[in-house]
């Protein structure tokens, strides 16, 4: 029963994550990246407060923060503030069909950073995965014109790749964090909100004239991408007895996402995007394979 529930939670999370690239692009038609961050973070904070309250964890929030206040402030500066600001800006500068696969390479960045900061050993298959992954990144960023190395938006590509660095950093910092993950996520949003308000005041962009479609889209991003979906994924990992099977479901997400971008936004999916994404995903699959050691007599 638990395994079926785990797969159900994981599939729901994967399907929801598949829609966020489309939601990002729709939202950016109405909001600047900084405005989008403020509204989505507010919605996500309220969502996580409700979830933590339902799980009777809310009374632990203050005590959790004061066990390691500097740590949670740093987490909040990384995620959501830094990570989503860079991610939203990269989506603003690039077609979503490019930004989404580039961001998907964060798992390969995590492998390299875990070796440097956590002392994890990089296996041969990890090096193969990294080579394939970053070759895929170049294929996507150059639209297959590898020799020219001309990027449609060098800043957009740079921000997308930098966001993977921040996202990997967030998970490395969390590797030894024993606090409740939902409370940790909520504290990050609560830390970032006042700074996001200040950024909006500094930007000085008007809020008038935003239609209900814009408010609905940004609320969707806050509720699902930055809130409920993480809870679903964490629940799936907690319930399952086969983490690898659950984790492998995530490989479906970017391909569903490209299909939705094509059908809903009308973006042209460049053949090089599919090629590059296939290389990234193939590299990630290689990382998941457990090779048996051969024993010689």
Short précis:
This protein is mainly α and 297 residues long.
Give the key terms.
13 helices; mainly alpha; 297 residues
The residue-averaged pLDDT reads 87
Radius of gyration computed on alpha carbons: 19 Å
Q: For the report, how would you describe the main beta sheet? A: none
Task: Give the CA-CA distance, first to last residue.
Answer: 44 Å
Q: Write the element-wise H/E pattern from the N-terminal end onward.
A: HHHHHHHHHHHHH
In terms of quaternary structure, what is this?
Answer: single chain
Class from secondary-structure proportions:
mainly alpha
Helix content bin:
over 70%
- E-strand count: 0
Name the overall outline.
globular
* Separate helix tally: 13
Strand content: under 5%
The stretches of 5 or more residues where confidence is low (pLDDT under 50) are: none
């Amino acid at each position: 029963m638990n395994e079926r529930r785990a797969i159900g939670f994981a599939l729901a999370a994967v399907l929801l994550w598949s829609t966020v690239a489309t939601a990002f692009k729709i939202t950016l038609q109405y909001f600047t990246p900084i405005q989008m961050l403020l509204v989505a973070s507010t919605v996500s904070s309220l969502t996580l407060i409700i979830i933590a309250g339902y799980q009777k964890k809310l009374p632990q929030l203050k005590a959790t923060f004061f066990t390691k206040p500097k740590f949670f402030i740093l987490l909040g500066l990384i995620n959501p503030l830094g990570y989503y600001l860079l991610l939203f800006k990269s989506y603003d500068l690039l077609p979503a069909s490019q930004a989404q696969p580039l961001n998907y390479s964060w798992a390969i960045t995590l492998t390299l950073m875990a070796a440097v900061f956590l002392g994890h050993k990089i296996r041969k298959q990890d090096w193969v995965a990294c080579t394939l992954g970053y070759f895929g990144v170049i294929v996507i960023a150059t639209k297959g014109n590898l020799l020219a190395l001309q990027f449609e938006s060098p800043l957009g590509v740079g921000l997308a790749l930098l966001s993977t660095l921040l996202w990997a950093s967030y998970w490395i910092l969390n590797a030894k964090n024993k606090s409740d993950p939902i409370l940790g996520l909520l504290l990050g949003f609560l830390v970032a909100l006042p700074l996001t308000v200040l950024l909006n005041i500094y930007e000085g962009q008007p809020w008038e004239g935003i239609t209900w479609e814009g408010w609905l889209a940004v609320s969707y991003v806050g509720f699902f991408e930055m809130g409920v979906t993480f809870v679903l994924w964490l629940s799936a990992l907690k319930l399952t007895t086969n983490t690898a099977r659950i984790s492998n479901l995530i490989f479906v997400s970017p391909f569903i996402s490209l299909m939705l971008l094509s059908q809903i936004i009308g973006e042209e999916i460049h053949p090089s995007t599919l090629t590059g994404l296939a290389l990234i995903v193939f590299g990630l699959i290689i990382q998941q394979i457990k090779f048996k050691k051969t024993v010689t007599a």
